[in-house]
Prior knowledge:
- It comes from Nitratireductor aquibiodomus.
- The structure is a single chain.
- This protein has 149 residues and is an all-alpha fold.
- The chain has one domain (2-72, 86-144): Four Helix Bundle (Hemerythrin (Met), subunit A), CATH 1.20.120.10.
- 71% of the residues lie in helices and 0% in strands.
- It contains six helices and no strands.
- It is elongated and about 45 Å long.
- The mean pLDDT is 88.
Amino acid sequence: xxxxxxxxxxxxxxxxxxxxxxxxxxxxxxxxxxxxxxxxxxxxxxxxxxxxxxxxxxxxxxxxxxxxxxxxxxxxxxxxxxxxxxxxxxxxxxxxxxxxxxxxxxxxxxxxxxxxxxxxxxxxxxxxxxxxxxxxxxxxxxxxxxxxx
Length: 149
């Protein structure tokens, strides 16, 4: 049932992203919603609030990896205005933002590789694979996201 719910959620987010393709802010939000759902599942397993499941762990890693490959395409010049938390540093330090995206892509690719075909064998392997990915999330939010206090 959980796998079905994940698949439906991913499909809905994909559809909303495609429908909003002409609106980079809407696409960014859809991608971040998918990331938040994946991080939520991962966090629940890591806190043992949800029983560890390698297939769910793999799905979370794959979602984060997919976002890493596409996210940077949705920050065109001029898309910093409007209903967004994208910080001006994205455009003011484009090289720094690209370096953060490149690191995110590298770390998610490594997590996909480490998780094998069926997902990480156990919780410790999952934590080792996803830890660097979550470090990227934190760093990018600190440096390239407007903080709403």
